Structure formats: C-alpha cells, structure tokens
Amino acid sequence: MSNTKTFTKDFTLQEPICDEGIEKALEILKSGKLHRYNVDPGEKGETALLEEEFAAYMGKKYCLACASCGSAMYLALKSAGVKPGDKVLCNAYTLAPVPGAIENSGAAIELVDIIDDYTIDLDDLEKKAMAADTRWFMLSHMRGHITNMDRIMEICNRHDLILIEDCAHTMGALWDKKKSGSFGKVACFSTQTYKHMNSGEGGLLVTDDPDLIARAIIYSGSYMLYERHTSRPGMDVFESLKTMIPNYSCRMDNLRAAILRPQLKILDVQCERWNKRYRILEQGLIQIKGITCPKRDSRENYAGSSIQFSLINQDEKTIQKFLARCKDQGVELKWFGNKEPVGFTSAYESWKYFGELPYLANTKRILATMCDMRIPLTFTEDDCKLIIKIIKQVAENLLK
Predict the structure, then answer these.
(1) To bridge 303 with a disulfide, which of 80, 148, 237, 271 should be the other Cys (CB 3.0-4.6 Å)?
(2) Best CA proximity match to 100, nearest among 181, 196, 166, 198
(3) Sheet harboring 370-374: ordered strands across?
(4) Which residues on adjacent β-strands are paired with residue 64?
C-alpha cells in the first residue's frame, strides 16, 4: 500500500482528571472519610453533594450515586417494582450490563429488534408491548443513538409500559430540547472511564418518584443512615420500607464523587467538544465508498463520544481484513459481528443465560457489518481528519 499513513495515539486514553478534582480527592484521602456516610454532624459529604447537583442538572427531584451503572440499573428495576419472572422488554443492540441487570433482578428478557440507524424498531416494540403480561421496558440508548422519544412515550402510554432509561452513552444529550434520561420513570447513567464523566466506575440514578428513590436508597446500602442523603423525600417515606428492603451495598464513595463534581460543571462544554470531533468523522465517513453512517434526526442533540458505521454488503472475511488493516495503521475499530464476545462488544446470541433467545434477522444483519470507534478527547480535530484518511485509504484498497 503506497503512501501508508499511521495513527499513533491510544484509543483508550482519556483526558486527565482536572486539578480541582485531584485537589478534592487528595483532601478526601487525607481525611480518611472515603465512605459516603463518614461525615460530621450537619456536614454534606461529596456523594450527597454530587447527587444534589446531578439531580439539578437533570431537572429531576432525586438522584442516587451508585457503584456502577449496572448496579444503578439493577436498583432501578428492583425499586420500580420488577419481580422475578416479570417480562422486561429491551432493545437487542446493547452492552452486556443491561441484560445482566435484568437477569440479576430475576426478570425474563424479551428482546426487541433494531433498525438500520442502530435504534430500536418501534413497530416491533409496539407489537411486543401489546402482550397482556408486558409491563416493563428498559430502553438502552446504545452508543448514544436516541430514537424518536415522542413515539416511545406514545407507545408506553398506550400500553401502560413503565419506561426505565439506560443513559450510559447519552449523559448530556437531548431529544427535542429535553434531556435524555428525563422521559421515563427512572434513568441510569454511567461514570465509567470511557463515558462522559470519568470516575473509573460509577453510576447515577435519577427519578421524580419519592417511593422509588426511597427504595433505591435503602437497597443501595444506606443501613439506617438514609437521613444523610439530601436528595431524597421526607423521612416518613422510609418508615414503611426500612425493614422490608435488603441491603445490596451498591453505594458510591466520597472519593469518586469528589472527582466527578468538577466534571459535571463542564459537562455540556465537553459534550460539544466530542460533537466537533464526531462531526468531522461523520462527514468523512459518509464520503467513503462502501461505508454508511446513519443520518441523525434533527431533534437529537447527541453527545458523540463514539461513532458507528457500517460496511455495506461486505462479508465476514472482508470485514476482518478491513479491521486488521486499519489496526495495522493505528486505527482501532470494534466490530459487533463477531461470533464470540470480544472486549466490550457482544451480540445478543452470547447472552445464553437467558435461555432460548429469538432470531432477530434485522439485528443480526445490522450488527454483522457494524464498526464502532471511541472518540476520546485526547484526540484533536486534526487527529480525526487523519483517522478518516486512513480509513478511506484502507476502504479504497479493499471494499468493493
């Protein structure tokens, strides 16, 4: 291959934690008060403050900081009232923690197909929502792609579906000027390293429902210290629940909360930085023969920390060559078409713990040619232009 270009930056390298977060973390470490309930009388700990601030950012009444987004989703399901054996609808294109949370709750999953823009198939959702035994819907805004939320809410209202949003990839994103995560009864966000705020691991649960948040707080492992939560309803709400709900120890600690609070202040600025890089990559990809990148709805204000595209009508052998050649030139792409789960990626057929799974022809077809790429903010806009040149060079030499 002539005039071969090489990209040398790491696709997993995130920006450093800001000085304010580091200074606060050091203060917490020096005090030894890492546990969220280890506070002086009348003192608000870092975790309680983060919950107040994220609830305000989301325009929600309550927030609970959790050990991970997976644990937040589990607590959301349990606190909303999902019982063992209940059926939960979920889009088939998502990551393993989502079905994992559903399985952990004891519920049965029913997967919903997807369409070519990588979002849930709303016709399939409506069809499956009609069943008499269907009450719950976990919507995963997978890789930051937001479906038509107006129609989602119409379907939920028409069929009495209780919506739980997985917003691990849409923190800071909006649909028609309304924040992702503010549509359902409860929503869950991730602060894992590769998400829009970084505490290594962590999750945030938001809701307006006082009973749900009280249950979640007790489930999370508050012992009888829930009065130290400041993003909560009145203490009377806890009285009938306190001896009926087990402790699952899914709390966030003050150290991670201290790291996150400064990041929340600049979240919207960071999202726009991601989107500038996303738009460069998107505009480059759609001009490459053999590659398609779905057009985003004008009502969707996404938070583009990753980008997905499909290799049109390519077989597995060609896709594998494409991935290998891009990697040889420093561009690391993930692929959802592997027969076995690899790294963070997995197809729904690998979730065999759910028992018999449906054959979803569209999901299989779409994932078979889908590539996925992180966009860390350690990449400059010029880096994104170089990545496009490499992908274009590989595509021109390989794709038909």
Answers:
(1) 271
(2) 166
(3) 291-292, 306-311, 370-374, 334-335
(4) 205
Q: What is the pLDDT of residue 1?
A: 45
| pLDDT-flagged residues of the chain (< 50) | 1
For helices 254-265 and 46-58, give the axis angle rounded to 10 degrees.
Answer: 40
Residue (of 307, 298, 316, 301) closest to 369 by Cα position: 316
Size (the chain), residues? 400
What does the block give as tokens for 93?
């294109």
Residue in 186, 221, 237, 265 with CA at minimum distance from that of residue 36:
221
For position 352, what pLDDT does the model report? 86
As a dihedral over the C-alpha atoms of residue 236, residue 242, residue 245, residue 251, rounded to 10 degrees, the angle is 90
pLDDT recorded at residue 338: 82
Report yes or no: 309 and 153 within 8 Å, Cβ to Cβ: no
Domains of the chain by start residue, with CATH: 19-265 (3.40.640.10), 267-398 (3.90.1150.10)
Please report the pLDDT score of residue 2 as a whole number.
52
Q: Whole-angstrom Cα distance, residue 277 to residue 381? A: 6
Full-model pTM = 0.96
Distance CA 381, CA 389 (A): 13
